[in-house]
Queue: 2 jobs
Job 1
Amino acid sequence: MSHEEPGTAAPPARRRRLVDLAPLKESPAFARLWIGGAVAGIGAQMTVVAVGLQIYEITSSTFAVGLVGGIALLPMIVAGLWGGVLADVFDRRRLLIASSLVAWSSTLALVALAAWDVARHADGGHAPVWPFYVVTTLNAVASTISSATRGSVVGRILAPHLVSRATALNGIAFGATLTLGPALAGVMASSVGLAWTFAIDAILFTAGFLGVWTLPALPRLGRQVEAGWGMLREGAGFLRRSPNIRMSFIVDVVAMTFGRPYVLFPALGATVVGGGSLTVGALTAAGAVGTILVSLFSGPVAHVHRHGVAIARAITTFGAFAVMFGVVVLVMEGVDHTAAPGWEGIFWPAMILLAVAMAGLGASDEVSAIFRQTMIIQASPDEMRGRLQGIFVVVVTGGPRVGDMYAGILATAVGLWCPPLLGGLAIIGLIAVLTRVRRARTGETFRQYDDRHPVP
């Protein structure tokens, strides 16, 4: 296991443009976790897309698709907070194994539910939608605990100076899952059906499980404590005293609440752009292309020290691309096009512009994510990282679910163009204000954060 004590000087970093593979070379444990997570993530993203398609097929309602996130939100918040506590108390490897098995079981349940819907559809009906909400909520809870624990592991199996580079590598894995997973989901859903799409996720899960299983033991450092409200209060107290980490959460909530158009994709594919499930997969994959490109050319991140400025600029750019997405959809309302399933039913000029907007959203979000995650790991002690990662996971997974509800409600009440257009403008304005607010005690702003002197 490669590990360097906090405070140890990092070796001089060579100027480079492409992603730095040093974390994979110096920590075999991180390499196995990274590879396994990338493979399993492809299946997980297939399921995310397939669930939306399944519920839209049953209900023909964008609002019903958005409810997947809304119903799971409160359980996910609880799971993130308590999962972080558990990660700071128990052996993190064992916790990852347990939560991964629960997530796997819920995926197998989705396979059974999709097969049930196929059987009901043959008789002219559909399976009820509520079991899908129950199972996806269980999956979200288990995945939230796994993600919180996985994030707190990185600081234990890597030297501090490799953290930002490891975060960039995680962006490549995440981008690959978002590229391949949705594209495969779209193709498989239209060819062999949703039940088989869920089944592939269950199969690919084994790679991620092997990466977790081969981790070294990761017990709590320092004195032993018990999980309870005291641990939550201690974490909340640390966050109150950590304005930079707190602001990194706030600005991401703003971006994820107002700038995610994913819940609109089934309706765009069915009624506006055309293409059906193929459009859903293609647009989701386009966002991942932006993520991958940023990660592939992430060599300079080791030389960026003003992380607050980098985050603020990245999220502002994110808002601008959300506005672009909304404008394209708004213009499409005046275009004479009859949407139809399949490649021939797609209005390609709109598809290309929407894909460019999605690539921009993915790229700018990845820049923000690299520096936000690095800030959390570098500026907090190990015994606090589980709880902070729990909050981080609540933000990065709960925020999009609030965004799904926001987009679903506004799209139903006004139009599909409204959520991204209005939300993008809100992001640009809020980020400009929030990141320039001066603290009463120090007079500093979030934009002044410098990773050479990490202050939480």
Job 2
Amino acid sequence: MSTPDQPSLRREVLRLAVPAFLALVAEPLFLLADSAIVGHLGTAALAGLGVASAVLLTAVNIFVFLAYGTTAVVARRLGAGDQRGALSAGIDGMWLAVLLGVFAAAATALWAQPVVEVFGATPGATAEAVTYLRVSTLGIPMMLLVLAATGVLRGLQDTRTPLVVSVVGFTTNALLSLLLVHGVGWGIAGAAWGTVLAQTGMAVAMTAVVVRAARRLDAPLGFAASGVLRAAAGGVPLLVRTLSLRAVLLLTTWVAAGLGEPELAAHQVAMTVWSSLAFALDALAIAAQALVGKSLGAGDVAGTRAATAMMVRWGVWFGVVLAVLIVATHRVVPLAFSTDPRVHAALGAALLVVALGQPVSGIAFVLDGVLIGAGDARWLAWAQTVFLLAYLPLALAVRALDQVGITGLVWLWLAYTAWMAVRAAGLTWRSRQDAWMVTGA
């Protein structure tokens, strides 16, 4: 097929990426509001919220394949002209989300106390964390259903609906938390109930949109064991990929913990900054998932190549812009997070390395999205495992150097940036092959 004209391609990428970016930014902003509301209950409540949130987000984020895998399958079938099949596959993914959500909720509620105690928080913070976590587990099935429904809509080339639902949902969450925590006087449990109610509303709204589209095309809505099993099998490689990425983050934090208290604090802020900047790059990855899946489903190899090349270029330039922004503010940002001069110095040095890695991160994020959209999940699973193994000696070398202070933190972030470079190189090599460019439904 002929290569699409660049202006049309740019408009299509922006149409998908901009709402996706705004939706990604909405969540952390409203989580900050939730933290501010709970923070007025006291230090123990805020510390408990931090611990409980870490557990809850881990329990949910390991199932992010529900969004990514569903996007790829739905987009491919849409591109092949099988809209009914696309929605049917999406419904299967949503049923899988409910089943996994019930399992994850039960396990989290059952193990809430021992899991929270692993963090070694004070008795007061531990009690608050357990309270929040046990109430919040009621919302886990809804959270996973939102992930799957988001994947369906992205596959249908709709990123605006998830944006609207996210903004309304997170605003409702903040208002409910304020009412239930301080108005009704439920304390940290009120914040948890606010989350459960808001997530339930989001799940109902997004499910209604998908169901309405399915009914228009007479797509089946009932539980289909074979379809759910296919969705589960397709999600396993992406789960392996996600676990490998999580292992890198945990390993990096483990090494940082041995560098000294100011350096650990600086590392946590640097990682938060890095994660926040990743939202901009991840928006391009989401657009890549949707566009590449649809393009390959339609058999448009030339269009896939053109879209991939353009989005990689955008990823690099976005990375350059972010790098310049970080360098320009690397002495100012630390002032907002700490009054300790040692943290200021360590964080300023770490942020310069964070800036160095942004263009490389742009390549890695975009190509990850391209290959997910192409359904190249098995290769991604073993590749991310290899990338993890490549990072192990780098991280362990930093630990073995026993360099405490700023020097150790800089070496750690250089190792992390090297891992990202290895990841980008591997994904670039794969993108230049033809094996992943499987066309049709």
